[in-house]
Amino acid sequence: MDPLKPLVVVSKCLTFDHCRYNGHMISDPFIEKMKPFVDFVPVCPEMAIHLGVPRNPIRLIFENEQFQLVQPATGKTLTTEMKTFLERWLTRLDGVDGFLLKSRSPSCGIKDVKVYPSMESKSALKKAKGYFGMQIDQFYPYLIMEDEGRLSNAHIREHFLARLYLQAGFRRLKKNFSVAHLIDFHTRNKYLFMAYHQSGLKKMGVLVANAKRLNEKQVLEDYQELIQTMFSRLPRTGSMINALLHCFGYVSDKLNTDERSYFLDLIQQYKEKHVPLSVLLSLMKSWIVRFKEPYLAQQTLFSPYPMQLLDLSDSGKNE
Ligand code: SF4
Question: Looking at the structure, do residues 96 and 205 belong to the same domain, yes or no?
Answer without folding.
Answer: no
